[in-house]
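Hi team,

As requested, here is the filled-out complex form for the zinc ion run. I kept the field names the same as last time so the parser does not choke. Let me know if anything looks off before we queue the next batch.

— J.
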Amino acid sequence: MSRNLLEHRWQQLPETAIRRLQAEQLRRYLRTVVLPFSAHYRELFREHRIEPDSLRTLDDLQKLPFTTKADLLNTPERPQRAKDFIIIPDEKTLRRRPGTILRALCRGRERVRKELEAEFRPIFVTFTTGRSAEPTPFAYTQRDLDNLTTAARRIVEVCTARPEERLLSTLPFAPHLAFWLAHYAGTSAGVMTLSSGGGKVMGTEGNLRLLGTFKPNVLIAMPTFAYHLLQQAVEDCVRCKSLRAIVLAGEKVSDGLRDKLRGLAEGLGAPNTAILATYGFTEAKQAWTECPFPHGQPSGGYHLSPDLCIMEVIDPQSGRPLPPGQPGELVFTPLAARGSVVLRYRTGDYLDGGLTYEPCPHCGRSVPRLVGNISRRSEIKEMALDKIKGTLVDFNQLEHVLDDSPHIGSWQIELRKAHDDPLEMDELILHVQKLNGTDEEIVSRELSRRCVAQLEISPNRILFHTAEEMRRLQGVGALLKEQKLVDNRPNAKPASKPKATPRPAPNEDSAPSAVIGGQAVNR
Ligand SMILES: [Zn+2]
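And here is what came back:
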């Protein structure tokens, strides 16, 4: 009953109803799906002596231990760790269930067998794109693909795309959530969808041609690629007046970048293009979006699906859940997943606004929303990039400084040792593309001043490049994901160690390792 109400009225329920129905749905989900059939959680609940029925309200969720990225990694003793998290039903248990017997009596055994297959048999996989670890597979059953379709269709709904529109996705062809979500978004909403595969498949040229000929109303892209594509389009005098929205995935989106993309869209003849960000991750098997909002006003945040997941915000140090409106780390629990399932999953992502249940000021939907910027702390830790010149550096903030600088187009952060000597000091080098013909001296001074003011560190060098040189540096059209941060320090981890000069690596698999993205859908 709770699933039905939550599902059918997913965007209309008040906070108290959402929390009550979610707690009900969680108890049933644990009792009938997770505990009987998940090797990992059956053991964990037994060890901690937790009964699903003891979770009376969402506040009781804190009785469950967290699951972390490390829990999913293979170890020599457990070489296939990710398998422990897959829901694998025991046929005997299923057959003995009164619900199964009743359904078999009403609809016939064969039909029930097919339904159970669709519910539980893994038929699809996506992978994480971790930096230092092996990619972790996440399995989907047909039921999961149906949930993915629902989540994707809701993204289209919240973004307000219409069936008569055309959608161009330039996300790279890859077994990653972002690509498939974009595919299901368009097709499930009945919108003409063209997936170009991004720069690596069709080159910037091919994508430029599509902008001019396919004339999309909605462009789905990773922010860095969107910037390069539109910049090149403006240079080549391509027109795309139909462009109404740019939906960004795979990296975080700063206000400065939104302004720059809006400016470029205007150059294509589309002056009122909405720039919308999405947030999601492999382990969630879903993603969420912002609704269109007026320029100059704050975003309404990411609109969650209350029937598909519970999102908590916790204090990253103490692990204590925080009340709505407080900033903290995001923790995810699915409510309807089959296949790979992680409960109370610590994302490592830090939300600087908070979770709110208030109706959205822009679209009026009454759903839980994640408000503010999301930065990925985990990745910074993973890459051991937090100390430059002995000072702690917040790379998310440095990215914002660069994105928000009005005289800078694309950029790349490079870390290296002075004179390439491992015993020397760390150096921070900024590669930037200067805009609007401003004097290099002025841009350098302004950028150094902002870095000192906001990060208490100044770059050792600022090097200027043309748009074409930046495209080459970042690997646009050559890599699956553009390089925005390159660690050339000799003791950088192998997985994140690029070449001596920051040239695009020929192997796409090594590409994301040297990049700090933001909130990646296709992790
Ligand atoms: Zn809204």
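Two things worth flagging: The chain has 16 helices and 21 strands. Residues 493-523 have pLDDT under 50 and may be disordered.

Thanks,
J.
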